[in-house]
Amino acid sequence: MKVVAKTANEAMAEAMRQINPDVVAAYPITPATEIVQIFSSFVHDGLVDTEFIAVESEHSAMSACIGAAAAGARVMTSTSSQGLALMDEVLYIAAALRLPIVICEINRALSAPINIHCDHSDTMNVRDSGWIQIYAEDSQEAYDSVIQAMKIAEEAFLPAMVTADGFILSHAMQRIDMLEDEEVQAFIGEHKSPYNLLDIYNPITIGPLDLQDYFFEHKRQEADAMMKAPEVIKKVADEFGQKFGRKYGLVEEYRLDDAEYAIVVIGSTAGTAKDTVDMMRDKGHKVGLLRIRVFRPFPAEEIVKALKNVRVVGVMDRADGVNAYGGPVFMEVRAALYEEEKKPDVYSFVYGLGGRDVKPVDIERVFQMIMDADKGKKIDRLNYIGVRE
Amino acid sequence: MEKEILEIRWHGRGGQGAKTAALLFGEAALETGMYIQAFPEYGPERTGAPVSSYNRLSKKPIRIHSGIETPDIVLVLDPTLIGKVDVTAGLKDDGVIIVNTTKSPSEVRKMLGLKDSIKVYTVDAYGIALATIGRAIPNTPMLGSLIKATGILNFDHLLESVRKKLEVKFRGKGADIVDKNIQAIKKAYEETKGEE
Amino acid sequence: MKETWKELPIGAIIKEPGSSKRFETGDWRTERPVLDPEKCIHCMFCWIYCPDSSIKVENGKMEGFLYEYCKGCGICADVCPTKAITMVREEV
Ligand code: SF4
Ligand code: SF4
Question: Which chains touch A (3 or more CB pairs under 8 A)?
């Protein structure tokens, strides 16, 4: 293990180097450009054995990844925002073909208006595409999660994206404990494919027309794989924790044990929120935090367990539902709690769109609002935080 | 370092290396066992346009990810930014400001209307860079000034760390350019002035 | 009985090579191609163009049609340079 200073982009590129995939097909996009750029220099310098395919769009990037993965290769790529949106239709294909591809994703707002900064609209847009989604809180976690994701994908036979907040993490240097190359190789193990198009002794057909008679069964099967994925994700995280000392789960509870008020958040804001929770605890408020690390598959059970004894919950979404009943995280967290006899009141707070900075005072305000609501003050179910009203 | 988290803001113009300075400083601090953050003002860089970059330093892991609004230390890499950019915005009452200028610290204090509790240091980083590197690149000299003014890191450690980083960065461009930068840092360290 | 989702191979792949052989597209036909061997020069244009691989070839010679799969699209008749293929109505 060695201590280095890296941005999330650099750290994810290093994770890719250590994984040493057979194929990387990618197209650059701010703020994820560096990942591919750094990785291509690894290819040039002969540090990896990867076939690097420079394509003309993200749609082609994912298409090439699918072809390579179907041919039995270990495959990775990287993208952000519009790039992920352009991949959209092919993402569904990668998932339904059950190909273990890994994307290093950097969260950036979807246009319009054009913006290059962080929000989660890009990955939330593809939340139902059948990809595992892991949201990193910091660059260390982005690095660790990319390594775990490769193993998870190849055990669950599902594609996985690891995402880190654009600029906030992608361009911010922090301390990273990097594993040795051999440790990464030993951890991820031999590459596993669900099938291999190039195996001439076991010829197969991929992507046949699948109509009313079988399509539903295949989708049900895909859903089943996703439902079983939490076990794989936990197993891989446990193994990672045992070997390297850094522990990860589907969710992370922070000072929730006796908490009366909690916020739910994903991504880098969780770090800022932890400091805020400490600050408010010092003032005597019983507050806590639940960070959702794995949003797909959705860890409903863990979320319910963590939140059911809380009085009021504020769910912070860095993506707007625009015309939905609240942000995507809010909707699912609230739905998951519906069955419970005793359940917290849940409010939606959309924040940080297009990279709007979120400060401890913003998070404090969310806590204040839900505490006021508990004392009988009427507040809106759906709220926007940090926007000029 | 007494504070739990020390926050630094670098002001420069696109192309002057404010981001590189923050990265070099962050890495040097990391090597002493500290937790660090180093990040540029998020956004596309445009040569000549006012830009800023930031550092956080702490003995404990740093979790906060919001922008830095109340820095402990401000460095101004270009004197012409004064008056155009609010370089003292949010600077803490016990803060430090270090300015690349030929003016004296008390002149800068007057220009910026600073409180007595804020410490002011100046250095002619352009003059030093021209005399050593041969180009008016203020970022490496300002690293020397930062250490002189605050003593956050051991100066020899900083020199060693920066040397290693520059050797990688200027790989193939000769040892000369690295030596000149180290010279500039040393000179700036010696010539940085505070108030009497 | 068709398989349930639990029994199907992963990723909707088909593991049996050439299984489309069982899918006889011949019963889609309303017109059938008929060859006039006198006119045929065995240029193989029809063989290249036929979307259902339904041109029978033996020893490099065009030898008629595989009617189990020929769906009667008429492409062969259209591309034949010597007009050796004519499409005729299928009768019940
Ligand atoms: S295209 Fe016509 S001439 Fe050529 S092989 Fe076919 S039937 Fe014969
Ligand atoms: S009619 Fe169409 S399907 Fe039949 S042999 Fe000709 S080209 Fe092939």
Answer: B, C
Q: How many CB atoms lie within 10 A of CB A213?
A: 8
Give residue ranges with CB within 6 A of ligand 1. Answer: C 35, 40-46, 62, 80, 82, 84-85
Tell me which fold the domain B5-191 belongs to: Pyruvate-ferredoxin Oxidoreductase; domain 3 (3.40.920)
> pLDDT tens digits for chain B (196 residues)?
567 899 999 999 998 999 999 999 999 999 999 999 999 986 666 788 899 999 999 999 999 999 999 999 999 999 999 989 999 999 999 999 999 999 999 999 999 999 999 999 999 999 999 999 999 999 999 999 999 999 999 999 999 999 999 998 888 777 799 999 999 999 999 999 998 7
**Claim to verify: residue A192 and residue A284 sit in the same structural domain:** no
Structural domain of A118: 2-244
Q: Is the pTM of this model over 0.95?
A: no
* ipTM of the prediction: 0.89
Tokens of A29: 């996009």
Residues 6+ apart with CB under 8 A from A84: A58, A91, A103, A105, A122, A123, A125, A126
CB of C69 within 6 A of ligand 2: the answer is no
Q: Residue holding tokens 């979807």?
A: A110
- Other C-beta atoms lying within 10 Å of the C-beta of residue A290: 25
A-chain residues near C4 (CB < 8 A): 217
